Amino acid sequence: MLRALAQSGNVTQAASVLGVPQPTVSRWLAALASEVGAPVVVKDGRGVRLTRAGLLLVDAASSAMGALEAGTRRVIEEVDPGSGRVVLGFLHLLGRTLVPELVKSFRERHEGVRIGLVQASRAEILQRVRGGEVDLAFFGPPPDEPDLAWAPLQSQDLMLVLPEDHRLATRARVRVTELAEEEFVGLEHGFGLRRITDDLCEAAGFTPRLAFEGQESDTVRGLVAAGLGIAILPAAEHPAPRLVEIPVLPKATRTVALAWPSHDHLTPAVRAFRDFALIKGPR
Questions:
Q1: For strand 209-214 and strand 253-261, is the pairing parallel, antiparallel, or unpaired?
Q2: Torsion of Cα atoms, 254 then 256 then 260 then 261, to 10°
């Protein structure tokens, strides 16, 4: 009911969506306000809008509905695994080749399985796995949470990315300790690469100064090419103009992992994709 009101902003329209008379919705609202001890809607012009209490209830209901929908889907797919659905969560960078190639190969063997794709930061993907919205997640570094199981898919070398006219651009190797006075361009907090960069710099005895923050590596590379800072990123698949990539010392790598809920109550379709990815995935 509250979700319908949030979308329409009108009691009459919400009642129509729910298929009940308008007075019924009004009684529900009054009963709900009495239950929580605060109004859940207030008048807003000719319509209504949710109060903060109402918005909190919508958030809670959405989480509950997500879990219920995920449970219902698992039951249906347990009966008919050939028509199942798998929702994959992954970092933007992994959407170039890793995930598309796995999906293509898997669909050649399981044509009836539908695939859902969610691109987000590492932190958001983890949250969606826990909420039941994402079945399997690809990201790095691997999770260290006890409610998630994981297996490595590949190891990526991390490189120092510089503008071609940078003072260090002609070096064969660069120690992380030499970057203490540099300005960095990096991903926002919540992304695995940001965590790795922060950890590398902390181990070298300094905190990186972030001049700019982005949400995907192509933007970061563009900012570096414009001379706005340096970055630590996985080696590029293809050379990029106006950029130089140099190995760092100590050597830095990122493990890309496939993660899933540790309870392992996976549907047949999800389990099939997980097992396929672990066998066919790059190393």
A1: unpaired
A2: 0
